[in-house]
Amino acid sequence: MKPEQPTGKTSQLLRVILVAFLAVALSLVFWTVFRGPAILARDDNPRRVEQELRIQRGRIFDLQRNVLAENAETAGIFTRIYPLPAASPVVGYYSLRYGTAGIEESYDAYLRGEPDNRWQAEMRQLLHRTQTGRDLQLTLDANLQAQADALLGARNGALLLLQLEDGQPDGSPAKILALASHPGYDPNFLDETFEELAADASAPLLNRVTQGQYQPGPVLQPFILAALLDQGIIALDEPVAHANRPVIVNGVATYCATPPPLEATWADVLAHRCPGPLQDLADRLPAANLAAAFDAFGLTEQPQLPLNTETAVSAPISKTTLALIGQDTLIVTPLQVGVAWAALATDGRLPTLQLVEGLQSETGDWVTSTPPPREPATAVTPVAAQTLRGALPRSGDIQTFSTLVLSGPDGSNNSWYLGLLPAGDQTYAVVVVLENNRNLAEVEQIGEGILTAVNGR
Fold it and tell me: Which 8-state DSSP code applies to residue 373?
């Protein structure tokens, strides 16, 4: 008996079913092969969120292997905790909702344990292995970082502490031991407070050391005088007439910070922080030469650091008499001032900044991290740097330079402190700025306090 042939309606139904199956197959291929990666990458993909929560990020340590960032695990879900919130200007934060900042951002792929290639990622997924990042070690000293934060207290401002190696070749790293910015935030509560922090007019999320933009004022005086010494335009024992005459800026008269002797020299101008005599040099130091001096000290370039150091570019000098007293177009960050100050401490050489001390290899071993060396750069000759340092005021073993800076048309001031402490084979350099502050004793107490702490550690 012959098998019954399908009727016309049955044959038509079979064709419809086959077409439907083909459409489903093509749809599956399209959504899994072609559109799959895009779907997985969507922020609202629950699977991606779950995978992110199961990533075990690497830990972040300080110079003595104190933990600055680590994970807490609950049922295979990891949350980030920060034992030292005072380190947030450097460590930053990791948030599923708001992203990353600081070292958490710069070394995100490393801390996440991102695979080197797609094959490794697929094998890990196939074997259901937890994605585990690697640890890293910073040059920060947790104790000094905590003390820097405590010294700033409730004041708005910034503090940078560097360790400089004496007798090292050009471009030797300057290690960052402390970097504090106020007001700040606690990264342990970032998700709950982020919108409030972002709306705060005092900008607690801004890293004032690396991004704070300040009118430098007399802070430039050591660098300008060093450049003048280097070019043979002045000598420190050369007499200066009327050192304490006033300088008028925005209707505000500024005199020497402390009264100089009647028969003053350029050394007295530096020691007593007198702005007037510098303006007399406008004819002897053209704008192009002054701009070159700013460039040579790194005051116009963005320092290389695994933190956000991007700031606005200063306009060219518009008036030399104002530029000589730091009240023209140049805007600086405390980090830039720190580089220039370190150059004076290391006989005129611009240092390479170092923030990461070591990285963990895939085998768990620690590998020393060395920042890429900068091109050998000299701000001034060793003789000029040494001569300038020798004329700086002293407080015990500390060489200091503190000054008030007119910071706004309303006559408000910022107070600055620059300090150097030679100690054995190292020299420690500190830069402190307090916003809306006219009390030099306060900023000096903070600067000397952190240098005393580092000398006694």
Answer: P
